[in-house]
Known about the structure:
18% strand; 358 residues; alpha/beta; binds glycine; four-stranded parallel beta sheet
Amino acid sequence: MHSISANDYELEIGSILDSSFASLLDKYSDVKKIIVSDDNTSEHCVPFLISNYDGLAEAEVVILPAGEENKSLAIVANVWELLTEYGLGRHDLIINVGGGVVTDMGGFIASCYKRGMQFINIPTSLLSMVDASIGGKTGVNLDHYKNQIGVFNDPEAVYIDPIFLSTLESNELLSGYAEMIKHGLIHSTDLFKKVIEQLDIPFELELELLKESIQVKNEVVKRDPLEGGERKILNFGHTIGHVIEGFMLGSEGMTHGHAVGIGMVFEAYLSTKKGKLSQEEFKIIESAILDVFPVPTFSNDDIQSMTALLTNDKKNKGGKILCCLLEKIGECTFDHEISEQEVTEVFLHYKNQQINLN
Ligand code: GLY
């Protein structure tokens, strides 16, 4: 078991059966426990936990409908009503078992219910292990706007057990790899290369690589928990990625990682356009990412709708669209102003490439 200190809680990486989870449950032996899960984890992960921990025998299991399109205030309100029916008090415990949607929503449900109660995260997707379950961001989407409503609030503990990765479909696993690529791009060339190599055998993820990626996020968050400055670099790829993902929510959908993958390529393109990232490094990033996360065919109307969503991004300030840019692989800077026009140009660049190919 590998334990990493987060701000005021522990992240434990390795088999949950060897972790401090049992003793944490002992500490909460006399309170009610609610497991927040979704359609997938209630079937594939929750039974494993209940059968291994007597402390969960009496726990109520709340099952959220799976999928980003259900990450809404309406579902959260339903859960708060259910918790009220269960007579849950502020000293009881919520245990979130799931991917990023579950840990974000479950954290938000716990943070606002009766002005806040304790919760722990047991992430079951790679995305949630390396990103969503750590760092204290909780919340829901509002229409097409990603994570528009939410609060910063740390869990009591996070248990990251790679055993759950075997329950994932490959597109879900790849979605998590996008955040690992991001950690490489903002932190070190060496990590970026290792993650790209690992993509050849995604289901055989090295524990060391998982830890290294988690460390990158954890260290940034420790220095800037409330995103006053440096933490913004964790949003690399997300300014454009979020509008793509938000736009796709209305149609066939796209995994978070896929949208962020395209967002990273587009933001790397802008980095080069603005004289930062070298053309050579841009090409390396572009080919590595688009190989896994291709750009779909967007119409001109789609592009217009997506760029319109940019104006309401959380990271904007004073009416300006702010974005992270890469100086080089391994170094990212934040608060760069970009225009709707520049973003439209990137979309058109890739659209025209597709037209040329056909
Ligand atoms: N996912 C970016 C952050 O947690 O800051």
